[in-house]
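Feature request, filed as a ticket because there's no other form

It would be nice if the structure record came with a short human-readable summary line next to the tokens. Right now we just get the raw output. Example of a typical job, pasted below so the devs can see what we mean:
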Amino acid sequence: MSDPFEAALAEKVKAQATSLFDEALGKKQKQDVYKYSVLPLSEDEQGKVRFDSNAGIVGAIKRAVTLPGDVATGKTDPMSDEGIARATELATMASPVNPAVRAGERAIPGAVKAMRPGETPAPSPESLYGASEAAYTKARGMGVDYSAPSVANLASSIRSELEGKGVLAELAPKSFSILGKLEKFPPGAVAPYVGIEAARRSFGNAAKDFANPTEQLAAKHIIDQLDAFIAQPPAKSVVAGPAADLSKVATEARGNYAAAKRSDKLTGIEDAADLRAAVANSGANVDNTIRRHVASLILNPKTRAGFSKDELSSLEEVARGTPSRNALRMVGNLLGGGGGLGSVVTSVAGSAAGGAAGGPFGATVGAAAPVLGYLAKKAGNAKTLKALGKADEKVRKRSPLFEQVQAETPDEVISPDGRALLMRAIGLSLMPQGGYERQP
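Raw output as currently delivered:
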């Protein structure tokens, strides 16, 4: 017969152990003391954050989607607090979007209608040239004339500035010759805008003399001074016509023309790449050809002239490539995707290696390596062409025509369907997650 004292003591120890176990278990269960309401994350007492598929929006969707299966298998009582709460989540998630959302106003009831600027496509080179020519025609027909003495004084002032910087007529003969004609107007004559614009184009041609940097410097300086004169002519220098309006029209004409010319350079690269790649390597080496041409454009002061810093940065990315494009390029080269002898060697080597590893089936798979290389080459070519196209779009968007069209493009309403679902998911995630206790 056992000692009653020892039995009582053992019962007390057992009760204490059970209490300690329950306490430890409770602490374990309370480690996830906070579940995020939007993100699928939980944070324990130590502040450690971990992924939790039962938390946030993901948890709300998970509970709603799995409810029918849990009820059918008996895991969840549909009349319990948990079942009722999860049914509410499912109903909120699955119910159709309020008809008012799909109405003409397309605004979520109770929320301000969300708008964003409408997307404006880049103008084509043809439209840029057309807009430029139309603006030049309009400017010539505005009948703006300047006094001959004011233009002559401007030309003499420019000559003095150049000579003061050491730029003499002997070093820049083309520019100084044209400048001399602006200094010598017949007595009583006026200087029409048409004549000044013709002189400006002549200076533009002189600025393309890359064999003579001094000529370039002189011509560009003169062009800048003429543009400043047209933009803000001195008092009493305008004899006839709306000079202020002319300045705006002339600026638009030059800006659209310059954007079209820059775009032509990039289009020329694409055309040349297609042609040269078609002649060599069965047309599979467009990526390399484009990269070389773009690199040459960037490194040559003559061809890169006129491009902005942002545009040059985009072109440099085309030439250097991205990690994904470079990976495709490497795989294509390794597997003989360029065609020719490389494909034959890769096919033979792949067939031999595949046959040694997996018999006839392995040999067949190994022989197909050039096909994979070809597909990698094609994918790389497509990505490079797309990158060049984006750079070209950026060039054409830096134009007065694009700014005008963009200003006229109406704002568009952001589709509310996604926002409505997101708002529902957020609402679901804010529902109780740790017990579904019904409020008294």
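Something like this underneath would help us a lot:
Residues 243-279 form the longest helix (37 residues).
The chain has three domains: 27-118+415-440, 143-241, 259-409.
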